[in-house]
Write a structure and sequence with these properties.
0% strand; 72% helix; mainly alpha; 2 domains; flat
């Protein structure tokens, strides 16, 4: 794996490169005024990504590529949520287009909703304040295991 000298800049520079290519496509296909407004929006998003990668927590770790196993699990769950939302939206759009007898596809809506749902999935499945304080939820929580050990007063069979 290649190590970058400034890993915090990887995600923002990728956003800037892809966004600039999209702005050029907008300029070629539409007007250069629209392309300029697209590029300004991309620059603002790039600055946001730069500050996001510097934040402490799951979102900053995921976008800066310094994740641990728990954060990898958060990525998988957020990706699954985004995929399910995009599949459901695709199905709904396909039903509407068949019912209206039109041949127009809303890929920008599907992609945008998928991106937003991935980001929300990271926020939903990431660490929350109660988890950071040491209290866990679920079957593997330390309280649940401790409770089993303390109440285990059953005599072994003879």
């Amino acid at each position: 794996m290649t190590k970058f000298r400034y890993p915090r800049l990887v995600a923002p520079l990728a956003v800037l490169a892809i966004g600039t290519a999209m702005a050029l496509a907008v300029g070629i296909g539409h007007t250069w005024t629209d392309a300029l407004s697209s590029e300004i929006t991309i620059i603002l998003i790039t600055v946001g990504y730069y500050f996001l990668t510097g934040s402490k927590g799951d979102v900053g770790a995921i976008y800066r590529r310094r994740t641990d196993e728990r954060q990898q699990h958060v990525i998988m769950k957020a990706s699954r949520l985004a995929m399910l939302v995009m599949f459901a939206l695709t199905f709904g759009i396909a039903l509407v287009m068949v019912a209206r007898n039109e041949n127009y596809w809303q890929e920008d809506v599907i992609g945008s909703v998928g991106g937003v749902s991935f980001f929300l999935g990271i926020m939903i499945y990431g660490t929350h304040e109660e988890d950071a304080a040491g209290t866990s939820r679920g079957i593997m929580a330390s309280d649940a295991v401790k409770g089993i050990e303390e109440t285990d007063d059953i005599a072994p069979p003879m």
